């Protein structure tokens, strides 16, 4: 059953992936790609949760790229979790120039007109104790992502009818949820995957500030530790992308001032320059060989015109020894990036040696009989132990290929 599930998810994602590359010049950043792996596509007795549009958002100009209302999916908690809140910020890449943002506004990543009216809640959003032991009965929310700058921009392009209002969307969603009970939460966890993982870091202390001082508030970033690393050609693919996002969408005023006081705005969009200064307890969940970063940042086609990395990019089992050495160097950069962060007792860490991306929303990677583990501890248990202060969690896997519990992603077409 697991193999069937994985094959369906990968075939669906890859069909979008290939179509996007063909039509848009093989640039993954223009569409939501690997974040799609965080969404369960098949299975039995799935929890489907309806979309709520934020009706008061328009008056605050808190709108999607195309000017439509933003939204979220809320499933109410009960029992011991009735006054606890888990906020999951949706991922889905970014848009860094007018062309990519114009394309994006005709998709669910830029307009609520195209958003699914119902979403599956699985993994950290599941309502079943056997699937989500610590958060199953909390109020669980997925905030939809329709701005293209990790909920952090605030500007517009009138000529192209583009609204870059991620920061306003964030505030409007939080205000709406506070009116529905979150203002008196006893416990709260802000989380996010991929671009949403970046947003969870950017907004972590702001989230703390929205809550009463008595609320237990922590943050979780899943697959959000994007590194300012050289690509295989020696270029800076991701830095160039981030520079476009920050400049186009007016992100600078909404970046943490402790960073912009001494670094340029683009550098302050990179989580590695933020995480050690976040005051609120933060958990970093990341694959050491993050699939999105390998494909879009480290070895994108533009940096590999001869196609030397193509097979390795699609299937890690086809990487040569020199390519694996390059990827081990990337892992070392990631470990260096979290070194100071991990020294704080309040922070948590789970870096497994997998070729994966977004492991908290997928049931098979969050909590299942064969889910990934470090030291026999699954991701869900590690996050729960950290949130509830049951034990400190600073889990770092041994280097590839030592971990046989990984659910590695393979993008080859049959």
UniProtKB/TrEMBL annotation:
<dbReference type="Pfam" id="PF03283">
    <property type="entry name" value="PAE"/>
</dbReference>
<dbReference type="GO" id="GO:0071555">
    <property type="term" value="P:cell wall organization"/>
</dbReference>
<keyword id="KW-0732">Signal</keyword>
<dbReference type="InterPro" id="IPR004963">
    <property type="entry name" value="PAE/NOTUM"/>
</dbReference>
<comment type="function">
    <text>Hydrolyzes acetyl esters in homogalacturonan regions of pectin. In type I primary cell wall, galacturonic acid residues of pectin can be acetylated at the O-2 and O-3 positions. Decreasing the degree of acetylation of pectin gels in vitro alters their physical properties.</text>
</comment>
<protein>
    <recommendedName>
        <fullName>Pectin acetylesterase</fullName>
        <ecNumber>3.1.1.-</ecNumber>
    </recommendedName>
</protein>
<keyword id="KW-0134">Cell wall</keyword>
<keyword id="KW-0964">Secreted</keyword>
<dbReference type="GO" id="GO:0052793">
    <property type="term" value="F:pectin acetylesterase activity"/>
</dbReference>
<keyword id="KW-0961">Cell wall biogenesis/degradation</keyword>
<dbReference type="GO" id="GO:0009505">
    <property type="term" value="C:plant-type cell wall"/>
</dbReference>
<comment type="similarity">
    <text>Belongs to the pectinacetylesterase family.</text>
</comment>
<keyword id="KW-0378">Hydrolase</keyword>
<feature type="signal peptide">
    <location>
        <begin position="1"/>
        <end position="20"/>
    </location>
</feature>
